[in-house]
Specification:
With 273 residues, this protein is α/β, with parallel strands linked by helices. The protein has helices at 28-41, 55-64, 85-99, 117-129, 143-150, 171-180, 199-208, 212-222, 234-241, 250-257, and strands at 7-9, 15-17, 21-22, 45-47, 73-78, 104-109, 133-139, 159-163, 183-187, 226-227. The chain has one domain: NADP-dependent oxidoreductase domain (TIM Barrel, Alpha-Beta Barrel), CATH 3.20.20. The termini are far apart.
């Protein structure tokens, strides 16, 4: 099952797949099996984090797969307790050791921790300048954090990973990132299934002969938003990847845009402001 998937060119000119596998809340054998299955299906972006405590298993799966390392885009993130300049540098070394792969493609600030944001970003800039990582970015940065970042960043983030769904359509962040050439990436894109029963989604499923997850993920792609749905279920991993054989009409994209109700699955980053 090797559908052709789109790539995006990041602002430092490296390529990244628009669709990836998220591995939050997966441990040990489950995490390893999910990554192996995803790579077999055709995923080429794997998103982990130090906080997920599965970097060892993710790295093991990547090494054991039959996929050339340069074809797989690997993201990990500095955990909140490890932020600050020196701590971040050490945390990166630890992630490298646990993943046990020759390079990390993208290193993100996981959350905008108050009092640590500038020093943490400066550490990421150092890692990038020293060519220890191919790209650097942020996660959970809403507009105030992005404006603040501009006041001290010498290197612009290539990615901003946030919670982004039809029911949390953060249009201002999407517009800001497009203007600044920062690739927006969505986590928890399918609301952990909590909105699959929405009658409007069900009607779209009938129209396109697709599942709720496929409709929502395709909506992300139509907006040029990278998305990293999490699943360890082999059938769901396949289902989530099978979104490149159809497109949503402009009218249906606009309809889905109208679903916003500020519905969050995860914490509100503004609580850290």
């Amino acid at each position: 099952m090797m559908n052709t998937q789109p790539y995006t060119v990041l602002n430092n000119e490296i390529q990244m797949p628009l669709l990836g596998l998220g591995v939050y809340d997966m441990y040990e054998a489950e995490a390893k099996a999910a990554v192996l299955k995803a790579l077999e299906v055709g995923y080429r972006l794997i998103d982990t984090a130090a906080a997920y405590k599965n970097e060892v298993e993710i790295g093991s799966a990547i090494r054991e797969s039959c996929i050339a390392r340069h074809e797989i885009f690997v993201t990990t993130k500095v955990a909140n307790p490890d932020q600050g300049y020196d701590n971040t540098m050490r945390a990166f070394d630890t992630s490298m050791q646990k993943l046990n792969i020759d390079h990390i493609d993208l290193y993100l600030v996981h959350w905008p921790v108050k009092g640590k944001r500038k020093d943490t970003w400066k550490a990421l800039e150092k890692l990038y300048a020293d060519r220890r990582v191919r790209a650097i970015g942020v996660a959970n940065y809403l507009i105030p954090f992005l404006y603040e970042l501009e006041t001290y960043a010498n290197i612009q983030p290539v990615v901003n990973q946030i919670e982004f769904t039809p029911w949390l359509f953060v249009k201002d962040v999407m517009a800001f990132c497009k203007e600044k050439n920062i690739q927006l990436q969505s986590y928890s894109p399918i609301t952990r299934g909590k909105k699959f029963g929405d009658e409007r989604v069900q009607q779209l499923c009938k129209k396109y002969d697709k599942t709720p997850a496929q409709i929502i993920l395709r909506w992300n792609i139509e907006h040029g938003v990278s998305t990293i749905p999490k699943s360890s279920n082999p059938l769901r991993i396949e289902e989530n990847f099978n979104i490149f054989d159809f497109t949503l009409s402009k009218e249906d994209v606009a309809l889905i845009d109208s679903f916003n109700e500020n519905f969050r699955i995860c914490e509100d980053p503004m609580d850290m402001w």
